[in-house]
Amino acid sequence: MLGTATSRLLLLAVAAVAIAVACPAAVLAAGPAVAPLSPYPVAAPTPVGDSVLPLFVDDDELVRAQLKRDGSIGSMADDLKIKINGGGDYALHLPGRVSAVADLGGDSVPGLSDGRVSFLGHLDAGQKLLAAEATLDPALHAADIPLHLAISYQDGGSAGSGRKSYTETIEIDNVTGQPATFIRGTPDPVALAQALDALHGVPVVYTPEINLATLYPIPAKLTLRAPISSVARQAYVPLAVDARIHLESADRLVTAVGADVAVDARGTQLHWVARLPQDTTSDGKLTVSFTFTGPAPLREPSVDIRAQVLPLPAALFAPPAGTTWTQAVRTSHSLADLAVLAQSGALSLHRIQDVSPPVGRPGGGPERVSYELVLASGQAPKPRAVAEAPLHPHPWAIALAALAATFVAVNAYWAWSRH
Question: Are β-strands 221-235 and 260-264 bridged in parallel, bridged antiparallel, or unpaired?
């Protein structure tokens, strides 16, 4: 999903590194190698068009997708919440294509202009909240969602007393992975400690509005000494995933590995929390599975998967207990591995800018986007009934039916003749 000019330049830099690594070791040994560290995420500017922007515009979007039974996307909507600040007239024409727009009760009624959400109004030196629900065409925007779901059901047979056993498996896949090549070698300890310190601090304070370079400056590169080798890995846009499953009160949970389970009068709630990927070596996949018994036929449990674009967890970049990175790298015997960790962590953080909201706002600057994928609980399609041979009526039934018809006709004639 690399779509920005910065990302393309980054890939060129990584490719150049890969070419250098492919050269004979004797060439690399002639001098130190340079491993560039990806810069912090900066939202790419979008065309302003004929918009008149206030002094401050902050856009948060929640993309909601209604799922089909197998986990594919049936419909999509985008909830927009835009904070604006300043003074004077404003006109915001958002760049994303939408099919319909509804007011969510903000300070300005949204409109639809040439297939795009628009807001028009006036600011009296203050702040306003603009809110709208934009309906999206899945054929155009399903690819904007950085995770895919696949839901499958297995019939486990009879569980007694008219109940059956079912197993549901949900495969959650972060689909933002892109191949990258990193250089492995002995780095300068000072630059490495600074990079790891920054990557440890950023997840704690991260929001798109913060200029991370001022809080946690990160070196632009790591100078590596021989021996030099290359490491090929997938680099992902990090996603924080929250998965919730609801079983109806008539269902009984058998097992749900790794889930937090809560039971009340409404039913059983299953809850999983994860980062995809969990670290720089993971594959960005999460599978949750649970078994339960319930009345036949299967009533599909409701599924609510929420994902937010966030850095990898701070614990991944934490120094050994009781030390700082400045102290730890002096005695570490795995500096080459830590150098790869710094490169891959910086690239995963940088790639946050590759996932932008599908509707967006007119102008450059940071944005936040989250996703919610929902499958409502419902009755599964019933098996098709086997067609039975037509019944042949008994002769006595034919005679009785004829007698009844004659009786009705006589009474009708008698009533008609009296009038």
Answer: unpaired
What 381-388 contacts at long range (C-beta under 8 Å, 24+ apart), as own/partner pairs, is 382/297, 383/297
Q: What 3-state DSSP class applies to 112?
A: strand
What is the reported pTM?
0.80
* Secondary structure letter of residue 50 according to DSSP: T
Q: How far apart are CA 272 and CA 397, in angstroms?
A: 63
Q: Which residue has the tokens 């986007």?
A: 369
Instruction: Characterize the bridge pairing of strands 56-67 and 367-375.
Output: parallel
Under a CB-based contact definition with an 8 Å cutoff, are residues 374 and 328 in contact?
no
Tokens of 260: 């937090």
Q: Where are the domains of the chain?
A: 5-379
CA distance 122 to 108: 9
- Cβ-based neighbours of 417, under 8 Å, separated by 6 or more: none
pLDDT digits (tens, 9 = 90+) for 29-81: 446 899 999 999 886 677 778 899 998 888 899 999 999 999 999 999 999 99
Q: How many Å apart are CA 100 and CA 98, to the nearest integer?
A: 6
Rounded to 5 degrees, what are φ and ψ at 346? -65, -40
Instruction: Give the three-class secondary structure for 293.
Output: strand
| Cβ-contact 246, 267 below 8 angstroms | yes
| C-alpha to C-alpha distances, 146 to 1, 10, 31, 168, 202, nearest whole angstrom | 8, 20, 40, 23, 22
Asked whether the bond before 277 is cis by omega within 30 degrees of 0, the reply is yes
DSSP helix/strand/coil, 76? strand
What are the tens digits of pLDDT across the range 242-279? Answer: 999 999 999 999 999 999 999 999 999 999 999 999 99
CA 276 to chain centre: 10
Query: Tokens at residue 290, please?
Result: 């649970």
